[in-house]
Design brief:
CATH architecture: 2-Layer Sandwich
Structural class: alpha+beta
Strand content: 25-35%
CATH superfamily: Dimeric alpha+beta barrel
Order of helices and strands: EHHEEEEHE
CATH class: Alpha Beta
Strand order of the largest sheet: 2-5-1-6
Distance between the termini: 13 Å
Length: 121
């Protein structure tokens, strides 16, 4: 089963952390991705640029409406993701708990719906 692990944290709080701490967390994430790849769980992962660089698109009455910034104002923002293969939710929870971002924010676990006909399926 595929799970999307969405890493949420407070961007402002993260930005105020020492550069060495931020880089250390990034390197921990890379190491985790390597471990997940070696164990057959890894499907993809990446940090995201800050919400200040976000563009949102909505279509209303057939016309696209483009706005800057995240759609919803929240205390925590989506900072990155891991896409994994896990045999069940318990295994996905164990992997999510190893993500460095879980120490400073929240990792949301979402089961990915398999849709026939998509590329790579």
């Amino acid at each position: 089963m595929k799970y999307m692990l969405l890493v949420h944290h407070d961007e402002e709080s993260f930005r105020k952390r020492a550069e060495t701490e931020r880089q250390g967390m990034l390197q921990e994430s890379v190491q985790l991705a390597q471990q997940l790849h070696a164990s057959g769980h890894y499907l993809g992962a990446a940090p995201l640029h800050p919400t200040s660089e976000t563009t949102c698109v909505r279509v209303r009455d057939g016309k696209p409406i483009v706005t800057d910034g995240p759609f919803a104002e929240t205390r925590e923002q989506l900072g990155g993701y891991f896409l994994i293969e896990a045999k069940n939710l318990d295994e996905a929870i164990g992997i999510a708990a190893r993500i460095p971002g879980a120490r400073i924010g929240t990792v949301e676990i979402r089961l990915v719906t398999e849709v026939a006909g998509l590329p790579g399926e």
